[in-house]
Amino acid sequence: MDLVEVAQATEGLGLMLADLIKGNVMSDPGRRRMVEGSAARVNLLVHDADVAVGLAFTGRQVRIGERLGDADMTITTDADTLMEMTRVPLRLGLPDPFTPEGRAIAAKLLDGRLKVSGLPKRLGLMIRLQRLFTVT
Amino acid sequence: MPTFPSSEWLDEYVERINGSKEYEEAATTWEGDLAYVFEREPDKGVPEDVWVWVDLWHGKCRGARYGIPEDEGGKAAYIIRAPYSRWKEVLTKELDPIKGMMQGKLKLKGDLPTIVRYVKAANELVNVASTVDTQFVDEQ
User: Which residues of A have a CB under 8 Å from any CB of B?
Assistant: First the structure.
């Protein structure tokens, strides 16, 4: 079973996320645990590109495809912020507030440019996602 | 004014890359070649796919070739492809390349984590391209 499965007809952001996760796990195999944790459903909405992707963590793999119903977490932001989230230095699995990049993400979370439904209840899921997506 | 796509346009693009301080700073540790594919749109004056190869190294372009065969261009570390009219939108800044990739309008092949690390350099490559005075082939 592949660690990352991409639904047929998925393109654009869905393929990018799949490549990102595969590349990050290849360079740091320990990140595999972030996929193999408990089951969860996440939606990622990039409003200024008008794209939405769903990530279904089954416990053994992540399936990437269309937006999911009854998601545990929905991340809504713009394309630039999403790219920033993939490059932000992490501390304890979250954007490091001691770096300008980490503070920029925190500021966007506070002023609504980055919305994450499901926090703080699903903080652990956010950490898994951030560790899977971040290239640093 | 060079026509896009053409080898004259590519020469001008390479000159602009090598004159860009912004690109040089953003790509100072970049090592890797890149192929652009301008996909055919016969009704727009692009009868066949056009493969362009650029050799990017530490903030400079060491070489470039226009109209190379697919089997040669396909060996590049990174390949970005889209129909001609999408590229036109990118060059005229009607389409942001990152959003275009997210929307599936531009397709990227290559190690994405590396591209993400160098996204500023990638943006500068586009900014530089948009500074070339361009005559589009479908407007001639």
Answer: 11-13, 15-16, 19-20, 23-24, 27, 46, 48-51, 79-80, 82-83, 86-87, 135-136
List the domain range (segments joined by +) for residue B25. Answer: 3-135
- How do strand B107-109 and strand B135-136 relate by DSSP bridges? unpaired
Domain count of the fold of chain B: 1
Q: What is the value of pTM for the model shown?
A: 0.92
Q: Hey, of B94, B96, B99, which one would you mutate to test binding to chain A, going by the most A CBs within 10 A of its CB?
A: B99
Residue B140 included in any domain: no
Q: Which amino acid is present at B11? A: D
Amino acid at B61: C
Tell me if A20 and B116 make a contact (CB, 8 A cut-off).
yes
Q: Are the beta carbons of A65 and A41 closer than 8 angstroms?
A: no
pLDDT in tens, chain B (140 residues): 999 999 999 999 999 999 999 999 999 999 999 999 999 999 999 999 999 999 999 999 999 999 999 999 999 999 999 999 999 999 999 999 999 999 999 999 999 999 999 999 999 999 999 999 999 999 98
